[in-house]
Design a protein that fits this description.
The complex is a heterodimer of chains A (249) and B (112).
Chain A (H helix, E strand, L loop, with lengths): L4 E6 L5 H14 L3 E6 L5 H15 L2 E8 L4 H11 L5 E4 L4 H9 L5 E3 L10 H9 L3 E5 L1 H5 L3 H17 L8 E4 L11 H11 L6 H16 L20 H6 L1
Parallel strand pairs in A: 1-2, 2-3, 3-4, 4-5, 5-6, 6-7
Chain B lengths: L6 E10 L5 H24 L2 E6 L4 E7 L3 H9 L7 E9 L2 H9 L9
Antiparallel strand pairs in B: 1-3, 1-4, 2-3
Helix pairs in contact in B: 1-2
Classes of the chains: A alpha/beta (249), B alpha+beta (112).
Chain lengths: 249, 112
């Protein structure tokens, strides 16, 4: 599986040793890249510094991701305003209807993470926003692995199924399955993520869509996409794949 | 006329903090399948330990071909509270190929 990408590997404290071990294990498992997720926006600089080093060492495509799990919309807006350009991906895990609605509507949010411990329904309008903004909906495997009892795991799996059953058919390819692993033990192989996706009735684990999202956001941060719908193309040796062709057309 | 059952050989890397015997490994894998798929699922998947290399921390399970995905999913979603963790490395069509892959693997350091 060449395009395997784990969209969420949780790093609570930016520990270089742990990040190194996680990256090595990801390479062993056959991943092409991963997004390291933190919930503390102030660690952006330190995280990006370590990731740059790891990219050159391991050859993985690593991205920094911020996860907001707050019920305070004003706080979320403040953080988004200040830190949007510091992270390749930003996700919100909504615990209330108001927050879910905000996460679906706000253009600065890339991923809406589903929390199986608390079912928050997504309505037709929310799915419309998700489709228009090309956002992703994330299903994490970590809660299933961390559940102490099989019955709790079954309940969490049932909650995920409820969201997927309520999603429009055209939105199923916007779901991404990630490990959400905070340590080496909770990492899943790419085939494991694929199997979970198939079990939940999804067309796939969404490796391509998340890679595409990371690349678009990198272009936005670096100024190649200054505003939506505009892309600055380069010429000659600086041109990326396909750019010369677009210019000729 | 009865049709011969098709099988696959699943190469597994054993990550354990304690010493593991072949019997314990077989029982653990079967327990994982039963936990996830139930008794009926266990009967369909038919996992059986056919090769175990304690030195390299690798094992080969024989499973029914149509249920390889179920077997892999059962192991992937096994609870992480257990000291034993099984990771699927490769699925092969013959046991010879699986054993050959084990012999090319580096020796396990023992602990995770």
């Amino acid at each position: 599986m060449k395009s395997a990408y784990d969209g969420c590997v949780v790093v609570r404290d930016v520990d270089a040793e742990l990040l190194n071990a996680l990256s090595t294990r990801l390479v062993e498992m056959g991943y092409r890249g991963a997004a390291f997720s933190t919930s503390n926006p102030r660690t952006a600089k330190a995280l990006r510094k370590i990731l740059r080093k790891l990219v050159s060492e391991t050859g993985l495509d690593l991205a920094a991701r911020l996860e907001l799990a707050t019920t305070d919309r004003a706080f979320a807006k403040r953080v988004l305003r200040k830190y949007r350009r510091s992270f390749e991906l930003i996700s919100i895990q909504p615990d209330s209807r108001a927050m879910a609605s905000f996460a679906c509507r706000d253009r600065r949010v890339d991923i809406v993470t589903l929390n199986p411990a608390r079912y928050v329904p997504l309505y037709r309008g929310d799915w419309e926003y998700l489709r228009e903004e090309e956002k992703l909906v994330e299903v994490r495997v970590y809660p299933l692995l961390a559940a102490a009892d099989a019955l709790i795991a079954a309940k969490l799996l049932g909650t995920y199924s409820l969201w997927i059953a309520g999603a429009p058919k055209t939105m199923l390819n916007r779901f991404v399955v990630t490990s959400g692993a905070p340590s080496l033990r909770y990492l899943l192989t790419p085939f494991g993520l694929l199997d979970v996706a198939v079990m939940l009735g999804l067309p796939g684990p969404g490796f391509e869509v998340i890679t595409e999202k990371v690349e678009i956001n990198r272009d936005k941060i670096s100024g190649i996409i200054p505003v939506p719908g505009v892309r600055i193309l380069r010429r000659g040796n600086d041109a990326r794949e396909g750019e010369e062709k677009v210019r000729a057309d | 006329m009865p049709v011969r059952e098709k099988r696959r050989y699943v190469l597994i890397k054993v990550e354990s903090t304690v010493a593991v015997t072949a019997e314990a490994l077989d029982a653990y894998a079967k327990g994982c399948v039963q936990r996830f798929l139930g008794i009926e699922g266990l009967a369909r998947v038919k996992p059986k330990l056919v090769h175990f290399d304690a030195e390299k921390g690798a094992a080969v399970f024989r499973v029914a071909r149509d249920f390889v995905r179920d077997f892999r999913l059962s192991l992937e979603l096994a609870p992480r509270t257990s000291p034993l963790l099984l990771r699927v490395v490769k699925v092969t069509g013959t046991m010879r190929k699986a054993v050959r892959m084990i012999s090319s693997m580096p020796k396990s350091s023992g602990n995770e």
